[in-house]
Amino acid sequence: MTDRERPGDDFEASEPISNANARMGDERCPNCLTTWETLRREGRAGCAACYEAFRASLGGVMTRVQRGESHLGKTPRAAQKRARRGENLLKRRENHLGLLQNRLQVAIAGEKFEEAALLQAKIRSLDSPGE
């Protein structure tokens, strides 16, 4: 038997490769040619197009692994820390304003108008934007 006569060497596909692969359960990404089995085994997509190519198969996996089908990403810890610090500063400012307003009411009730004027100036400076 010569090389030319070996079975399979003269394979002429009667259908497109993608249809043959789908029929055999060997779906491939059209962009990087990663198979579903490779993605499942390694736990990584070969490219961004893999997510679209294997959408039906990935749906259940994504829901199970990351609480939903769509990946929202991860917030860097430094950004979370800055956000918390900003929230804490706003709370402290609001508490300080409330304290000053209470002291202002007490000063007005006690007819301590000079103290009230100073407290009012502090309140205005904290209320003004940019500080």
Compressed to H and E, one letter per element, the order equals HHHHHH
Radius of gyration: 34 Å
What's the number of domains? 2
Low-confidence stretches: 1-24
What proportion strand?
under 5%
What profile does the largest beta sheet have?
none
Dominant shape = rod-shaped
What does this structure look like?
This protein is mainly α and 131 residues long. It has 2 domains: 13-66, no CATH class; 77-127. Helix content is 60%, strand content 0%. The chain is built from 6 helices and no strands. Helix 5 runs antiparallel to helix 6 (113-127). The protein is rod-shaped and about 85 Å long.
Layout of helices and strands, plus pairs?
Blueprint (H helix, E strand, L loop, with lengths): L16 H7 L12 H7 L6 H5 L1 H12 L10 H33 L3 H15 L4
Helix pairs in contact: 5-6
In short:
This protein has 131 residues and is mostly helical.
What labels would you give this structure?
131 residues; mainly alpha; 2 domains; 6 helices; rod-shaped
